[in-house]
Amino acid sequence: MRTDSSPGTLPAREHLPAAGAGTPVLDVVVPVYNEEKDLQPCVRRLHEHLARTFPYPFRITIADNASTDTTPQVAARLAAEIPEVAHFRLEQKGRGRALRTVWSASDAPVLAYMDVDLSTDLNALLPLVAPLISGHSDLAIGSRLSRSSRVVRGAKREFISRSYNLILRGSLQARFSDAQCGFKAIRKDVAQELLPLVEDTGWFFDTEMLVLAERAGLRIHEVPVDWVDDPDSTVHIVRTATDDLKGVWRVGKALATGALPLDRLARPFGDDPRDREITDVPTGLARQLVGFCVVGALSTLFYLLLYSLFRSFTGPQTANALALLVSAVANTAANRRLTFGVRGRGGAVRHQAQGLVVFGIGLALTSGSLAALDAATADPAHSTELAVLVAANLAATVLRFLLFRAWVFPERREDGDRRRPEPEPRPTVVAQNPHGTPHGEPYVTAYGSPYGTPYGTPGSSAPYDPAWRDSTLHLQPVRPHDTDPRETR
């Protein structure tokens, strides 16, 4: 996983201000590969719909993924004929690569994409982006698996889609319903922080982005869509499914080992109502109690199984000590990650050492209970021992939670009240206009925006070259193996 880019602090959600003249609020990206037949009717239909129904300025960006037919010429002609259409050429294939490149460069505050076949009914476009404009959500996706969706497609694709989403729910604990619907949107400020963490450049890009966003606590809005499958789709289903499963394994491994710094992808204090300081209500207490109870129940079962196993060849005191030691290590690790949200390996040894101290207190309680039982009964039954241990463990559990919350995993606050990190200053990226500027000066723009000032980039002092809007962007591979030969469109 790529972890060299550290996410920063997201701005608080707020309703986007009214855009100035010529500044697009929405940038809809249409990634294409060899779509010379479908591209023109798609773009004209999409443009007509937006011009008729969308109440904000918009742009349609054609992201050409190294097409070898006449797609570049069709795209250039559309960009020349329609002011709201831009053409962006990449010399490498990959839908994910195209989306990340264009989204990172766009100056629009809301970014979206849809497939060129327009399988999704366009009436869902405004409901898709409205929660992002209002500040209610961070990302929005169309869902073909919602109960109110109306979908026309074959049984084979239906089975594959539902099976894939079941795999995501079972392996990555994903809660969104449809990862691969080609109909998504994201706020620009969120994309700037989230996209550097997304490694895939192909069809798994959507899934990886959604999983990371969900794990980072971002809000994902789902819109039920009307969908008619494209029978002429050239996507290689088996190869795509295989690569997606490899992506699931890669992301799951990175999340399990704490390789992704998602805990640093935070919003300012006060944006989330759960972060607000409320008198006599400790922050996050309810969620921590639920997580601790779940971990505690599983740990108790694990402990009892270990005790029964050890008791078969040793005495009750030794069996209790061994079972409690092993289960305590597992309990501390689980509570560290699941209950108190501590990720990464930093401080893990110290947390385990403190957990062993808590273990010692629990051992004293349970061992004292067994000693009292032995004093009261010469040869207690095994079921009686288990009952006494359960009662003793309940008392130890309450004390364990209090010690974990107050001592082992205390809340880290800044300035007395805040736990959110301060935003780091963002560098300015300098991109050289391949066509040159009127005076041969460097073309400077935040995050390398290829659009420059024709759409009114705020605060930009860069001169505008009209030829840049439809220029070809030559990319270098992110890694030596960073190619995606499986994509056919």
Please outline the helices and strands.
Blueprint: E1 26-32, H1 39-53, E2 58-65, H2 71-81, E3 85-90, H3 95-105, E4 110-114, H4 125-134, E5 139-143, E6 150-152, H5 155-172, E7 183-187, H6 188-194, H7 205-215, E8 220-224, E9 226-228, H8 237-257, H9 285-311, H10 316-339, H11 348-376, H12 382-408, E10 430-431, E11 443-444, E12 472-473
Parallel strand pairs: 1-2, 1-4, 2-3, 3-12, 5-8, 6-9
Antiparallel strand pairs: 4-7, 5-7, 10-11
Order of helices and strands: EHEHEHEHEEHEHHEEHHHHHEEE
Average predicted local confidence, pLDDT: 78
Tell me the radius of gyration. 28 Å
The largest sheet has its strands arranged as: 8-5-7-4-1-2-3-12
Biggest pleated-sheet summary: 8 strands, mixed
Distance between the termini: 26 Å
Supply the number of helical segments: 12
Number of strands: 12
Dominant shape: elongated
Short description:
The chain is an alpha/beta fold and 489 residues long.
